[in-house]
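Action item from last week, closing it out:
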Amino acid sequence: MATETQPIPLPVTAVTCLEDRAHIERTATLDLVAGVQRLRLGPISALAVDRTLHAELSGEQQATVLDVRVVRTWTPRGPLPSDDDSALRLKIRALEEEQVSVAHSRDRLRARIDLLGRLATDLLRDIGEGTGNGETDPARWTRELDRIDSERDTHGEQLRATEARFTALSGELAEARQAVELSEEQPAELVGHVELTVQAAESGPVRLRLTHLTSCALWRPAYRAVLDGDALTLETDAMVWQRTGEDWSDVRLTLSTARSALTTDPPRLTEDRLTLRDRSAAERRTVDVEVREEEIADLGPAPVLGLPGVDDGGQARVLHSPTPVSVPADGRAHRVPLTSVSTAASSEYSCSPELSPLVTRVVRFDNTSGHALLAGPVDLVRGSGFTGRGTLDFTAPGAPVELAFGSHDDYRVTRHTEESRDTATLTQRTVITRTVRLHLSRFSAPGERGEQAVALRERLPVSEVSAVEVRLRKESCTPEPDTIDADGVARWTLHLPPGERRTVTLVYEISASGKVTGL
């Protein structure tokens, strides 16, 4: 069997980036000879998953793949500098050697100063003992003390200079290491190659297509919304990170939300035990209710705090890059443009005082991009430039989209609530009356003219049991709400000129029978 020891290049030509990994496709043209031969291809990333390795041969020549495997070689980088090191790495090596030398000098000086200190202590003790015995030699004592003090001063100055140099070297070394980390990349110590064993009926060229999975690659959607009058341009991008050990140069990039890891393990079955029991007499006489908060969602699953994964609405979505892209293996985020669409948009000033006292400009438009908009951050841009960053929820094709383009500082909203409770003596029916007053003020700059419409929203509780009734007291509401939807959200549209102030009053009753508890 013929064996080729010289590696054949096997570049990356297409990548399907998944939520937490990537599917790599490589292609190459092989010149085969008749018979069985083993080829060495690569190098490739050492993170390739062996069990996903798949090779296909195509062409006019008849050839069969007998075996394909990944072989990894360990080539650790030596501690000594080599000839191919950059000038920055050579400088780091020189600084490290100088730092070691300065550290040794500092230790020697500290030991010398400590020895001189002990010598001065011994001399003073000798002076004390000689004076006690009646032996005096002032000239020798003075000479020895002067010599010790002179050497201590000299070595102290040298120690201060050495410590200052050591501190300066530490700073230079930290800056040089940071520069190397930002500008250079360590060569991979673990390198993989593909060993391919093929059998060809006759000599000739064939085309090889090799695919495998690899880790350390992921993507997330990102958007940019530009508002220009009544038109909005929505740009859909993909933020791609990869540190697989090899760069992706001019590859066909596909973005997918498929979770291949979830298909390997079946779902766990847990026991769900249901039991029946008779209600007690006390439970038959009472109806236990509770007040809970429900988030109103028109489309898609319930929102999740943070960003643990790509929200695709429960169905795998696939997006394609229109042009070949290059993503280096530096572990940084790289923005890849996908689609851009311009559509008509309508906007209004909206406020929900129960949630926030700010009046926000809300822009509504339809998703005409031709694909689903996955949940992700969106950069908001309008006439004055970048206005902030928001969040776009999952939106199906053709579905309406809402984006908040920041608050309007000309408005101020305050909210006050009052509640009274009354219980009838005969029927024991409890009536809770709630009054909500909303004060909306507009503070405009001098010379500003024209009215602005503001949509004001306030919610009413919605009862799910017949024993509890919610009734709007229209005669006490000023003004009466324009609409109340099925979720109990009341809406007013107020037109305010500059400097105007409006007060909205909402009154409703919650009536419960005597057997209701929990309110």
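Closing note: The first helix runs from residue 87 to 132.
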